[in-house]
Amino acid sequence: MHTDIFVCHNGHKILTNGTFRMTKTERIITMMRFINNRQFFTLHNLCEAFSISRSTAIRDLAEIQSLGLPLVSSVGPDGGYAVMHNQLLQKSKLTSDELRALIISFLQATDEQLPYLKNPRELLEKLFSDAMPTEQDGLLRLQEVLLLDHSDLANMRQLPTVEIVPKMLTSLFKICMVDRQISVKYSDHHQQITLPACYVHYIFHEHGTWYADLLDEQKRCNQVLPVGSLLLTGDQSSTQRLSEDDLQNLITETARTMNVQLELEGTAITNFHANHFFHDTCTFTDKNKQLAEVASYLDLTYPNRIQAFANWIIALGAGVTVKSAPPQLISCLSKTVNRLKKQYG
User: Fold this and answer.
1) Could you tell me the pLDDT band of residue 16, with boundaries at 50, 70 and 90?
2) Where in the chain is the domain with CATH 1.10.10.10?
3) What is the pLDDT of residues 81-124, one digit of tens each?
């Protein structure tokens, strides 16, 4: 497939998918930081992170080693590279533009349910303190002129009240940072259910709620649980733990089949990017990005999710065409449309 490349005023190349193509020097420097931030990595990790071929990754590693960053390699199915950390890289320091980008991103996100965030004002002041004294006044003025979704026009410097995150969210993050094979206990209609062996696909935030996308290793099925329903998370016992190969095979066998296919055009594409579900994938089918196909997975065991999905399709607007969908969703769409017709004539 042909990919068009555009050149910015600063010399960076941009692919049609919107990503930057780094120069070799930029890639080597960024790759050194990538390596230095990890205890262990593989060639596949580099290929995926930098969108390069395996042969390019090998050449880059050879050049990085020649610069003095020592790597230890291991062979076998679990092989890869380990880093013997040294002082070759200088301590990272944010540039002015990077600090501005970070502050704007933080201000935009402060009305979300962010894990670990207890005092947004304290964190914001720490970010301001990293700026040069001559830049601090400018950053304060930026906060006054930046109108975000949650901004209070009466007091632009007032940060919104932080929403309380689910009690188990931070615990779930902490345990997944060590191991994604865990055990959980959750509440379902006043019943306490234990999953002694599960794998965490993802933790995601959708429409104001945090969810855990889990693979039940015993029942060999996937399920999505609201993090607010979790009562306990813990390590998985060694007797129930799957090997890496067995786990990958199980993930492949239980992969979800996308059961909703949509075609989008015009404003429906814009509406999709503004609001969509976690399992949605959008692929443009023309180079002008005016036509797109969306594949999605809808869990039919939850009627409220079917209704929410139907409402979302209607909200996409006139530019959406349903190519294929489960009968339950089609029925729900018809009922919703008929109800709207009766209400608004």
Assistant:
1) very low
2) 5-83
3) 887 765 555 666 788 888 888 888 888 777 667 788 777 777 88
Type of residue numbered 258: M
Helix (H) or strand (E) holding 33: helix 24-36
Q: How many CB atoms within 10 Å of residue 276?
A: 16
- What token pair was written down for 100? 């501005």
Give Cβ neighbours of residue 64 (< 8 Å, ≥ 6 apart).
28, 31, 32, 35, 71
For the domain 5-83, what is the CATH code?
1.10.10.10
| Residues 146, 92 contacting (CB under 8 angstroms) | no
pLDDT band at 5 (very low <50, low <70, confident <90, very high): very low
Q: Residue range 194-210: average pLDDT?
A: 91
Res 1 pLDDT > 60: no
Task: Retrieve residue 51's tokens.
Answer: 């969108």
CATH of 169-253, picked from 3.30.110, 1.10.238, 2.40.128, 2.30.30, is 2.30.30
Quote the CA–CA distance of 244 and 73 in Å, as a whole number.
Answer: 19
DSSP letter (8 states) at residue 22: -
Domain with CATH 2.30.30 in the chain: 169-253
